[in-house]
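Write out the 3D structure for:
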Amino acid sequence: MKIDHGGIVVPTEKLDGVVNFLIATLGHMGFKEIMRPIPTAVGMGDTGPYFWVQGCAMDDVTAKEISKRQHTAFTAETVEQVQQFHEAALKAGATDNGAPGPRNHYHPGYYGAFVRDPVCGINFEVVIHDHQG
């Protein structure tokens, strides 16, 4: 089963920063802003909005706790897309949280890369599940 839609919550003042980071790091896979039905909600995806970035008023302590606990993984079609994501993320100011490579302790064929975005520190991943290398 595939997820129909989901998203993350960020401080309202960091909304555009996170959206711009996601476009900079996932744009090579067709990921873009699709719609913004209200100023604090951005629907993103490739052909339709399936990933939402929601702005929310919060204090610094709450924002740090929420950011540390959030994780979102995007599926790649190729190892090259995983590597391109990681490279683009570091160039966009992200912190490495796991260089591209196999993660057989998750399951055989798992190849992913992890970063923490420079805006909120959210752990983003791009993964391919059927890597044969």
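The first strand starts at residue 6 and ends at 11.
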